[in-house]
Protein backbone atom coordinates (compact mmCIF):
# COMPACT_ATOMS: atom_id res chain seq x y z
CA UNK A 1 0.00 0.00 0.00
CA UNK A 2 1.36 3.44 -0.97
CA UNK A 3 2.00 6.05 1.76
CA UNK A 4 -0.96 8.35 2.33
CA UNK A 5 -3.52 5.91 0.94
CA UNK A 6 -6.05 4.53 3.40
CA UNK A 7 -7.10 0.92 2.88
CA UNK A 8 -10.59 -0.12 3.98
CA UNK A 9 -10.03 -3.78 3.24
CA UNK A 10 -11.58 -5.98 5.90
CA UNK A 11 -9.36 -8.26 7.95
CA UNK A 12 -9.17 -11.88 6.87
CA UNK A 13 -10.46 -14.28 8.00
CA UNK A 14 -13.88 -12.97 8.95
CA UNK A 15 -14.52 -12.11 12.64
CA UNK A 16 -17.09 -14.90 12.78
CA UNK A 17 -14.30 -17.43 12.18
CA UNK A 18 -12.48 -16.33 15.32
CA UNK A 19 -15.75 -16.27 17.28
CA UNK A 20 -16.45 -19.82 16.12
CA UNK A 21 -12.94 -20.81 17.20
CA UNK A 22 -13.54 -19.41 20.69
CA UNK A 23 -16.83 -21.32 20.94
CA UNK A 24 -15.15 -24.57 19.82
CA UNK A 25 -12.36 -24.20 22.38
CA UNK A 26 -14.86 -23.41 25.14
CA UNK A 27 -16.87 -26.52 24.33
CA UNK A 28 -13.77 -28.72 24.09
CA UNK A 29 -12.29 -27.70 27.44
CA UNK A 30 -15.22 -29.20 29.35
CA UNK A 31 -14.96 -32.86 28.21
CA UNK A 32 -11.32 -32.88 27.00
CA UNK A 33 -9.41 -32.27 30.20
CA UNK A 34 -6.54 -34.71 30.01
CA UNK A 35 -2.98 -33.42 29.75
CA UNK A 36 -2.56 -34.81 26.22
CA UNK A 37 -5.79 -33.26 24.93
CA UNK A 38 -4.98 -29.86 26.46
CA UNK A 39 -1.48 -30.05 24.98
CA UNK A 40 -2.94 -30.77 21.51
CA UNK A 41 -5.23 -27.74 21.81
CA UNK A 42 -2.28 -25.63 22.92
CA UNK A 43 -0.19 -26.73 19.92
CA UNK A 44 -3.03 -26.06 17.47
CA UNK A 45 -3.65 -22.58 18.86
CA UNK A 46 0.08 -21.84 18.89
CA UNK A 47 0.25 -22.77 15.21
CA UNK A 48 -2.69 -20.45 14.47
CA UNK A 49 -0.92 -17.64 16.34
CA UNK A 50 2.26 -18.24 14.37
CA UNK A 51 0.23 -18.10 11.15
CA UNK A 52 -1.17 -14.74 12.29
CA UNK A 53 2.34 -13.42 13.09
CA UNK A 54 1.81 -13.40 16.87
CA UNK A 55 5.24 -14.79 17.73
CA UNK A 56 5.64 -12.84 20.98
CA UNK A 57 2.33 -14.16 22.28
CA UNK A 58 3.32 -17.73 21.38
CA UNK A 59 6.60 -17.41 23.31
CA UNK A 60 4.79 -15.95 26.32
CA UNK A 61 2.15 -18.69 26.39
CA UNK A 62 4.77 -21.39 25.84
CA UNK A 63 6.70 -20.16 28.88
CA UNK A 64 3.54 -20.12 31.02
CA UNK A 65 2.50 -23.58 29.84
CA UNK A 66 5.99 -24.97 30.57
CA UNK A 67 5.86 -23.56 34.10
CA UNK A 68 2.47 -25.17 34.64
CA UNK A 69 3.78 -28.55 33.52
CA UNK A 70 6.75 -28.24 35.87
CA UNK A 71 4.46 -27.26 38.74
CA UNK A 72 2.21 -30.25 38.01
CA UNK A 73 5.21 -32.58 38.22
CA UNK A 74 6.74 -30.98 41.31
CA UNK A 75 3.50 -31.00 43.29
CA UNK A 76 4.00 -34.75 43.82
CA UNK A 77 7.07 -34.03 45.95
CA UNK A 78 5.33 -31.63 48.34
CA UNK A 79 5.48 -33.32 51.76
CA UNK A 80 2.11 -31.95 52.94
CA UNK A 81 -0.64 -33.74 50.94
CA UNK A 82 -3.29 -30.95 51.14
CA UNK A 83 -0.81 -28.44 49.72
CA UNK A 84 0.15 -30.81 46.91
CA UNK A 85 -3.52 -31.39 46.10
CA UNK A 86 -4.20 -27.64 46.03
CA UNK A 87 -1.26 -26.99 43.68
CA UNK A 88 -2.40 -29.85 41.43
CA UNK A 89 -5.96 -28.47 41.23
CA UNK A 90 -4.68 -24.98 40.41
CA UNK A 91 -2.40 -26.26 37.64
CA UNK A 92 -5.25 -28.33 36.19
CA UNK A 93 -7.60 -25.34 36.24
CA UNK A 94 -5.04 -23.02 34.64
CA UNK A 95 -4.23 -25.68 32.06
CA UNK A 96 -7.89 -25.71 31.02
CA UNK A 97 -8.05 -21.91 30.90
CA UNK A 98 -4.94 -21.32 28.80
CA UNK A 99 -6.45 -22.57 25.46
CA UNK A 100 -9.55 -20.42 26.05
CA UNK A 101 -7.39 -17.41 26.85
CA UNK A 102 -5.28 -17.99 23.74
CA UNK A 103 -8.38 -18.11 21.53
CA UNK A 104 -9.69 -14.90 23.12
CA UNK A 105 -6.32 -13.19 22.59
CA UNK A 106 -6.47 -14.06 18.89
CA UNK A 107 -9.97 -12.58 18.69
CA UNK A 108 -8.95 -9.39 20.51
CA UNK A 109 -5.75 -8.88 18.53
CA UNK A 110 -6.97 -9.70 15.02
CA UNK A 111 -10.50 -8.27 14.91
CA UNK A 112 -11.34 -4.58 14.76
CA UNK A 113 -14.27 -3.46 16.85
CA UNK A 114 -16.20 -1.96 13.92
CA UNK A 115 -15.83 -5.17 11.92
CA UNK A 116 -16.93 -7.24 14.91
CA UNK A 117 -20.02 -5.08 15.39
CA UNK A 118 -20.85 -5.29 11.67
CA UNK A 119 -20.46 -9.07 11.71
CA UNK A 120 -22.75 -9.36 14.74
CA UNK A 121 -25.35 -7.14 13.11
CA UNK A 122 -25.25 -9.31 9.99
CA UNK A 123 -25.97 -12.27 12.29
CA UNK A 124 -29.05 -10.35 13.58
CA UNK A 125 -27.72 -10.22 17.13
CA UNK A 126 -29.83 -7.77 19.19
CA UNK A 127 -28.34 -4.39 20.06
CA UNK A 128 -28.82 -5.04 23.77
CA UNK A 129 -26.07 -7.66 23.44
CA UNK A 130 -23.87 -5.88 20.89
CA UNK A 131 -23.45 -2.67 22.90
CA UNK A 132 -22.20 -4.31 26.14
CA UNK A 133 -19.97 -6.62 24.12
CA UNK A 134 -18.46 -3.67 22.24
CA UNK A 135 -17.78 -1.80 25.48
CA UNK A 136 -16.17 -4.86 27.10
CA UNK A 137 -14.19 -5.55 23.91
CA UNK A 138 -12.56 -2.13 24.18
CA UNK A 139 -12.48 -2.07 27.97
CA UNK A 140 -10.23 -5.10 28.58
CA UNK A 141 -7.21 -3.98 26.49
CA UNK A 142 -7.52 -0.46 27.88
CA UNK A 143 -7.67 -1.81 31.42
CA UNK A 144 -4.53 -3.85 30.80
CA UNK A 145 -2.67 -0.73 29.68
CA UNK A 146 -3.88 1.15 32.74
CA UNK A 147 -2.55 -1.62 34.99
CA UNK A 148 0.83 -1.22 33.32
CA UNK A 149 0.75 2.56 33.90
CA UNK A 150 -0.12 2.10 37.58
CA UNK A 151 2.66 -0.47 37.98
CA UNK A 152 5.15 1.94 36.37
CA UNK A 153 4.08 4.73 38.71
CA UNK A 154 4.62 2.44 41.70
CA UNK A 155 8.13 1.57 40.47
CA UNK A 156 8.96 5.27 40.17
CA UNK A 157 8.12 5.65 43.87
CA UNK A 158 10.21 2.65 44.85
CA UNK A 159 7.24 0.32 45.24
CA UNK A 160 6.47 -2.88 43.36
CA UNK A 161 3.26 -4.84 42.78
CA UNK A 162 3.65 -8.62 42.75
CA UNK A 163 1.66 -11.73 43.76
CA UNK A 164 4.15 -12.30 46.61
CA UNK A 165 3.55 -8.79 47.90
CA UNK A 166 -0.20 -9.37 47.65
CA UNK A 167 0.08 -12.41 49.94
CA UNK A 168 2.55 -10.83 52.40
CA UNK A 169 1.06 -7.33 52.54
CA UNK A 170 -2.53 -7.49 51.25
CA UNK A 171 -3.70 -4.20 52.80
CA UNK A 172 -0.76 -2.19 51.46
CA UNK A 173 -1.10 -3.79 48.03
CA UNK A 174 -4.79 -2.93 47.82
CA UNK A 175 -4.09 0.62 48.90
CA UNK A 176 -1.28 1.17 46.38
CA UNK A 177 -2.60 -0.71 43.36
CA UNK A 178 -6.26 -1.71 43.54
CA UNK A 179 -7.71 1.62 44.68
CA UNK A 180 -6.09 3.63 41.83
CA UNK A 181 -7.17 0.89 39.42
CA UNK A 182 -10.80 1.03 40.60
CA UNK A 183 -10.90 4.82 40.36
CA UNK A 184 -9.40 4.78 36.89
CA UNK A 185 -11.74 1.94 35.83
CA UNK A 186 -14.80 4.05 36.64
CA UNK A 187 -13.50 6.91 34.50
CA UNK A 188 -12.64 4.52 31.67
CA UNK A 189 -16.14 3.05 31.71
CA UNK A 190 -17.66 6.52 31.33
CA UNK A 191 -15.25 7.41 28.50
CA UNK A 192 -15.90 4.18 26.60
CA UNK A 193 -19.66 4.53 27.01
CA UNK A 194 -19.48 8.07 25.61
CA UNK A 195 -17.32 6.86 22.71
CA UNK A 196 -19.82 4.10 21.96
CA UNK A 197 -22.67 6.61 21.83
CA UNK A 198 -20.64 8.89 19.53
CA UNK A 199 -20.12 5.96 17.16
CA UNK A 200 -23.87 5.47 16.88
CA UNK A 201 -24.18 2.12 18.61
CA UNK A 202 -27.57 3.11 20.04
CA UNK A 203 -28.91 4.47 16.75
CA UNK A 204 -32.17 3.01 15.54
CA UNK A 205 -30.94 2.67 11.96
CA UNK A 206 -28.51 0.08 10.67
CA UNK A 207 -24.87 1.14 10.90
CA UNK A 208 -22.65 1.23 7.84
CA UNK A 209 -19.02 0.12 7.61
CA UNK A 210 -16.16 1.28 5.41
CA UNK A 211 -14.79 -2.27 5.48
CA UNK A 212 -16.38 -4.92 3.30
CA UNK A 213 -17.23 -7.44 6.00
CA UNK A 214 -18.53 -10.58 4.32
CA UNK A 215 -18.56 -14.27 5.16
CA UNK A 216 -16.84 -15.85 2.14
CA UNK A 217 -16.19 -19.41 1.07
CA UNK A 218 -12.71 -19.36 2.60
CA UNK A 219 -14.26 -18.39 5.94
CA UNK A 220 -16.74 -21.25 5.67
CA UNK A 221 -13.82 -23.60 4.95
CA UNK A 222 -11.98 -22.36 8.07
CA UNK A 223 -15.10 -22.92 10.19
CA UNK A 224 -15.55 -26.39 8.70
CA UNK A 225 -11.94 -27.22 9.50
CA UNK A 226 -12.32 -26.01 13.12
CA UNK A 227 -15.52 -28.03 13.48
CA UNK A 228 -13.88 -31.15 12.01
CA UNK A 229 -10.90 -30.89 14.37
CA UNK A 230 -13.22 -30.38 17.36
CA UNK A 231 -15.36 -33.36 16.32
CA UNK A 232 -12.25 -35.51 15.90
CA UNK A 233 -11.01 -34.61 19.37
CA UNK A 234 -14.40 -35.45 20.87
CA UNK A 235 -14.46 -38.80 19.05
CA UNK A 236 -10.99 -39.69 20.32
CA UNK A 237 -12.01 -38.63 23.81
CA UNK A 238 -15.17 -40.74 24.02
CA UNK A 239 -14.24 -43.65 21.73
CA UNK A 240 -10.42 -43.96 21.79
CA UNK A 241 -10.20 -47.75 21.72
CA UNK A 242 -12.87 -48.13 19.06
CA UNK A 243 -11.14 -45.71 16.69
CA UNK A 244 -7.70 -47.18 17.27
CA UNK A 245 -8.88 -50.74 16.70
CA UNK A 246 -10.72 -49.78 13.52
Automatic annotation (TrEMBL):
Q: Which InterPro entries match?
A: ABC/ECF_trnsptr_transmembrane, ECF_transporter_component
Key words, A-Z: Cell membrane, Membrane, Transmembrane, Transmembrane helix
For this protein, the parts annotated as crossing the membrane are 20-48, 54-72, 84-108, 123-140, 220-239
* Main location, first listed in the record: membrane
Concerning CDD domains, the annotation shows: EcfT
Q: Where in the cell is it found?
A: Membrane
Q: Which GO terms describe its cellular component?
A: plasma membrane
What topology does the record note for this protein and the membrane? Multi-pass membrane protein
Question: Which is a Pfam family this sequence falls into?
Answer: CbiQ
Q: Tell me the PANTHER family matching this sequence.
A: SLL0384 PROTEIN
Question: What name goes with this protein?
Answer: ABC-type transporter, integral membrane subunit
Name the species this protein comes from.
Answer: uncultured Sporomusa sp
Please name the taxonomic classification of the source.
Bacteria, Bacillati, Bacillota, Negativicutes, Selenomonadales
